[in-house]
Write a structure and sequence with these properties.
The complex is a heterodimer of chains A (330) and B (327). Chain A is of the alpha/beta class and 330 residues long. Chain A has a domain of 224 residues: Rossmann fold (3-Layer(aba) Sandwich). Chain A is 43% helix and 9% strand. Chain A has eleven helices and seven strands. Chain A has a five-stranded parallel beta sheet, sandwiched between helices. In chain A, strands 4-5 form a two-stranded antiparallel ribbon. The longest helix of chain A has 26 residues. With 327 residues, chain B is an alpha/beta fold. In chain B, helix 10 packs across helix 11. Classes of the chains: A alpha/beta (330), B alpha/beta (327). At the A-B interface, helix 6 and helix 7 of A face helix 3, helix 4 and helix 5 of B.
């Protein structure tokens, strides 16, 4: 009998179930955020939907006890895998004082949590890339054996910080893995109007590092490539650029209507390739996931999301005066 | 005590901080083998090695951004911008990132980086090697801006900047590098960021300024002393956030205030100093607040005639001080 794909790349049945569960939890939190937004309860949401496979595949290939991540705004599943909880994310959605990302100061999607080595992020895109390179530089200086993982969208690969940061990492052979989650759109502008080259990974050669374009809808393929990149980083062989091809299943954000610039057919096709459906199918075929197991998992996730929502909705806002705190060290 | 130039004080402060704390390192263009285009990092590469005195690619946003990342991790980077004029590609990293990291993470993450940059004119540097860039950064809470005027202050304030747990923009006047020398203690000392300093006690008029202009104002004050005009000179030292208490006290002391900067006049730091005095000292003033600054042209031209016309000097300050004293 042919060996199952996940076994052949070193993942156990339990691990792939955990991956699927993380993808599903990310999706359910995201869907709840949209409901809350449309109900007028939270002002803003920006989605991970369609990119969960790339995010979870990558996160599971990293050492989640040691590695540093510099996520971008769609990386809900990355931060979940790195230890942020559904409740933490709902607190951020509702902008409550207990939100570990920012205490309600930043919009949702602006992740950061020091205890889980998730660097704090801003809204101007790609600024996190040089930060990840800086953490990797510190790791190299201190002979530490961890890697740094940074993500961004394909539109962001046009920013100067992409070029400056990757070139710096290439010159100093730093242990940093850059994953571009190419969902085909920078808000409304399609990839063919974003890139002068065919693929983002074509750019890797200019920075002296390997570049790969992979199927971001397949968490196992992403896992395999990121794992190899991590091994390369820890061997001292330097950085890797990975372009994970994904779909964006929602509008850019709750303030956008993507029907203005995307066709029905295109959206239908993207939904057919939804990584959550496809991964579930694989897991069933591999006899890892059963109907009963999935039912149990969905119940557990529903309860988790409900509890997180209730908790966050009832949690306190920061006091008005606390907006004056933490400008400088106090 | 040892006689030290302004730039030697820079080098000494960095060297001593690198000896004191393994987390301190230097990164920038030409800072390694060459020791910097002005020689501010001379000898550090030989003493501390390539890993802690890092020649970077020619890319300012990466110099700032990589430094910021390392600072978030727990390092104490000293990032050098070769000329303050070239800091512009790094503005997003400094303003959107460094200045906001503590605030936006609700005190979870911090960014203890020092960004050094030589600013100022009078060295035939033309438009893009002469600028004063402090006003661009001087309304960014979360960031501190230090602009010392003497070798003694350089050593103490640069040490404080490196030890500070928030980002500091440390601006050094490039003409002061070899022009100014004085006795500097060999032992370790720091000067608190955020405190202005009275550089000359006087009772007739008050001059408030910073950087190289402090030196020019002191020269002007010496000449005017012979004419019986006794000037009080306050050196801001930290230009963001400003030492409001010291500004108010200095203004009230004489009731006649001259504010001096080498920067273009409109929108410069001294406008904010004037506002602080206006808000707090109206009934203590005996004359309108007077500002002396560079002209509102884009930058300092190359030809000596035009450069001299733009650049601040003791004569210009003396004339303005005399006018104010006569008011």
């Amino acid at each position: 009998m042919e060996e199952k794909r996940h076994i052949s790349i070193g993942l156990t049945d339990d691990q792939v179930i955990e991956m699927y569960k993380t993808m599903l939890l990310a999706r359910k939190i995201d869907e709840r955020m949209w409901l809350l937004n449309r109900a007028g309860k939270i002002p803003f949401v920006i989605s991970c939907q369609g990119q969960e496979a790339a995010q979870v595949g990558a996160a599971f290939a990293l050492d989640r006890e040691k590695d540093y991540v510099a996520p971008y705004y769609r990386d809900l599943a990355v931060v979940l895998a790195f230890g942020m909880t559904a409740q933490d994310l709902m607190l951020s959605g509702f902008a409550k004082a207990e939100d570990p990302n920012s205490g309600g100061r930043q919009m949702p999607g602006h992740f950061g949590q020091k205890k889980n080595r998730i660097l704090t992020g801003s809204s101007p895109v790609t600024t996190q890339l040089p930060h990840a390179v800086g953490v990797a530089l510190a790791a190299k200086m201190d002979n530490e054996d961890f890697a740094t993982f940074v993500t961004l969208g394909e539109g962001s690969s046009n920013q100067g910080d992409f070029h400056e940061g990757l070139n710096f990492a290439g010159v100093h052979k730093l242990p940093v893995i850059t994953m571009v989650e190419n969902n085909g759109y920078a808000i409304s502008v399609p990839v063919e109007k974003q890139l002068g080259c065919e693929k983002v990974s074509d750019r890797a050669i200019g920075y002296g590092m390997p570049g790969y374009t992979i199927n971001g809808n397949d968490p196992l393929e992403v896992y395999e490539v990121v794992k190899e990149a991590r091994e390369r980083a820890l061997r001292g062989d330097g950085p890797t650029l990975i372009e994970a091809m994904t779909h964006r299943l929602t509008a850019h954000s709750s303030d956008d209507d993507h029907k203005q610039y995307r066709t029905e057919e295109e959206l239908e096709q993207a939904k057919k390739e939804d990584s959550i459906l496809m991964f579930a199918e694989y897991l069933r075929e591999a006899n890892v996931l059963t109907d009963a197991k999935e039912e149990e998992m969905r119940k557990e996730i529903d309860a988790l999301v409900n509890d997180a929502t209730d908790y966050a909705e009832n949690a306190a806002y920061a006091t008005p005066e606390s907006s004056l705190l933490h400008v400088y060290e106090e | 005590m040892t006689v030290m130039s302004y730039i030697q004080a820079v080098t000494t402060a960095i060297k001593e901080e690198m000896e004191r704390d393994d987390q301190v390192f230097v990164l920038g263009e030409d800072v390694g083998k060459k020791g910097g285009v002005f020689k501010a990092t001379e000898g550090l590469y030989d003493q501390f090695g390539e890993a802690r005195v890092l020649d970077t690619p020619l890319a300012e946003s990466a110099i700032a951004g990589v430094g910021i990342g390392a600072a978030m991790y727990g390092k104490r980077p000293i990032a050098e911008m070769q000329f303050a004029d070239f800091i512009m590609p790094a503005v997003n990293q400094i303003i959107s990132e460094a200045a906001k990291i503590r605030y936006r993470s609700n005190n979870d993450w911090t960014c203890p980086i020092t960004i050094r940059a030589p600013y100022g004119g009078g060295i035939h540097g033309a438009l893009y090697h002469s600028q004063s860039i402090e006003a661009i950064f001087a309304n960014q809470p979360g960031l501190k801006i230090v602009m010392p005027s003497t070798p003694y202050d350089v050593k103490g304030l640069l040490k404080s900047s490196i030890r500070d747990n928030d980002p500091v923009l440390f601006l050094e006047h490039k003409r002061a590098y070899r022009l100014l020398k004085e006795n500097v203690p060999e032992e370790d000392y720091t000067i608190p960021i955020g405190e202005a300093d009275v550089k000359r006690e006087g009772s007739d008029i008050t001059v408030i300024t910073y950087g190289l202009c402090v030196h020019f104002a002191l020269q002007a004050a010496e000449r005017l002393e012979e004419e019986g005009i006794d000037a009080h000179i306050l050196d801001l030292r930290t230009i963001y956030p400003l030492d409001q208490e010291a500004i108010i006290e200095a203004a009230k002391k004489t009731g006649k205030v001259l504010l001096v900067t080498e920067d273009n006049k409109e929108g410069s730091i001294i406008g904010e100093v004037a506002a602080i005095i206006g808000e707090n000292c109206l009934f203590d003033l005996d004359a309108p607040i007077k500002r002396l600054a560079g002209p509102d042209v884009p930058s300092m031209p190359y030809a000596p005639t035009m450069e001299k016309h733009f650049m601040m000097n003791p004569d210009k300050i003396e004339k303005a001080m005399k006018e104010l004293a006569d008011f």
